[in-house]
Amino acid sequence: MATDSPAQPEKAGGDFLTMRGISKSYGGVHALTDVDFSCRLGSIHAVLGENGAGKSTLIKIISGVVQPDTGEMRLQGQDVQFLSPLQASKSGVVCIFQELSLMPDLSVADNISITEPPRNRLGLIDDRALRRRAEELLARVGCEDINPREQVSNLPLSRRQMVEIAKALGREPQLLILDEATSALTSSDVEKVYAILHQLRDDGLALLYISHRMHEIEELADTSSVFRNGRHIETFAKGTHSDEEIVQLMIGRDMEHVYPSKPTRDAPPEPGLEVRHLSWPPMLTDISFSVGRGEIIGIGGLDGQGQRELLLALFGVLRGVSGEILIDGQPARVGSPADAKSDRYGMALIPEDRKTEGLMLPMGVADNISLAALPNLTSGVTIDRSAETQKIQEIVDRVQIKVGDLDNPVATLSGGNQQKVVIGKWLLTGARIVLLNDPTRGIDVGTKQELYRLFRELADADTAILFYTTDYDELIGCCDRVFILYDGAIVRELRGDDITETNIVSSSLNLPTGDDGGSDQARGHS
């Protein structure tokens, strides 16, 4: 039975949650096997592992989304079995999932208090109290700039994530679970979340934190537990393992050659994509650069400096863009995404949010992969099913998508495999220019390594790749050159040995890098 009121901490540092012998299977797949796990009050506990390691199943059991097949769970020493997230929440267990739970057509204030809105003496919802409560919780997460009356669908993904955190804090949790809580946030919001989590820990809460970003784990986690193939591998204190040792625990093998080797060139490659004086006020200003055939060009800088808008402008999503785009040396008129992906231009855009912008989650894996390439698979007015099936299987093999049946809904796949489906969908179009919008967000280290290898293979096959990422290591490890955006303009080009974290950070702040190897827009890179 679930308790009906939040468990109160007896003392900071005591065990809040204890699990023993937890197992869960879906059909013949063992998601968790005989797992023992516990977390303490006044501590941030990281849960690490590749996609499919069992992390999501663990937190779903803790938060009442699913029930285990075997095992027991205790909260403050009392046996509990949560049959729903509402029961878990009433016991002080609140989870912020990577897939946000907000209702897009409702206001921010309505979402924050959706389960228990404040009411007046007549039992009606008190709009003034509703708005005041939202303002207080938004201020608690450092987001006073968000209007409680604003419809959630009008907010960018990073702001929605902060609303989700405010909503969770409004439930007054004793155990707060965060699943990739910073994956969609801007740099400034990440710092706010760090401060919030440290304060909650100091207030005596237990926090479970799931992230694939090692620098976040180093920054936040007091204790870490590694899961692999549905089993709890090891729990250890902060500072007792190096990043390399942690990764080896996660994947069960040495993590050698994370990034493929970059090619050496005797001469610059032929340009596949050229951009001249592109502007989209006020977000983009006089941007010029080129991407050669076979190059991976990184786009860096602090979040919100125009990187996403640049990719959308190139793909024909935005209206009112000025400037010139050339593809293979010829002027291109990309007025829409349909133009961009046409055989004439051969562009592909891997979007920021795979679940809402890249996939039809209820549809099968095969249908999702073929979606963007349907015009190429038709013969007259009918689809050549035999050719379609063959080409889809070739993509599945090439991208190494792990799926039992291609008709299974894509929603049943892990996050990494879902991202592979998005990439595979565009590869089926035969794209010659690939625009990547933070493609490894929320993906485990093993799958990231597979994607890095795929990107380099695409480049080696003369694909021109423009790669926006919020991860400095990816800019350094993957990219042949890196353009840094600041306030909607390219302020620096880094290449070769000058692609370092110090230069990337300094350039992102529009500070001098102190090197001679880079070039900037004012000095006329093309």
How many domains is the backbone divided into? 3
Second-tier CATH architecture of the largest domain: 3-Layer(aba) Sandwich
Mean pLDDT: 86
Number of strands: 22
CATH superfamily of the largest domain: P-loop containing nucleotide triphosphate hydrolases
Beta fraction: 15-25%
Distance between the termini: 66 Å
What count of helical segments does DSSP give? Answer: 18
CATH topology of the largest domain: Rossmann fold
In which range does the helix fraction lie? 25-40%
**Which blocks of ≥5 consecutive residues have pLDDT under 50?**
1-12, 516-526
Output the CATH class name of the largest domain: Alpha Beta
Rg, alpha carbons: 24 Å
Q: SS-based structural class?
A: alpha/beta
Largest sheet: 6 strands, mixed
Shape: globular
**Strand order in space, largest sheet:** 6-7-8-3-9-10
List descriptors.
526 residues; alpha/beta; Rossmann fold; 6-stranded mixed beta sheet; 18 helices; 22 strands; 25% strand; disordered N terminus; disordered C terminus
Written overview of the protein:
The protein has 526 residues and is an alpha/beta fold. The chain folds into three domains: 1-6 and 15-92 and 177-255, 3-Layer(aba) Sandwich (Rossmann fold); 100-171, no CATH class; 271-523, 3-Layer(aba) Sandwich (Rossmann fold). It has 18 helices and 22 strands. The chain has helices at residues 55-62, 85-90, 108-112, 127-140, 157-169, 187-202, 214-220, 243-251, 307-314, 337-341, 354-358, 365-370, 374-377, 385-399, 415-427, 445-460, 472-478, 501-508; strands at residues 15-26, 29-40, 43-48, 70-75, 78-80, 93-96, 175-179, 206-210, 223-228, 231-237, 271-280, 284-292, 296-300, 322-327, 330-332, 347-350, 378-379, 382-383, 433-437, 464-468, 481-486, 489-495. The chain has a six-stranded mixed β-sheet with strand order 6-7-8-3-9-10, with helices on both faces. Helix 14 (385-399) crosses helix 15. It is globular and about 70 Å long. The model is unreliable at 1-12 and 516-526 (pLDDT under 50).
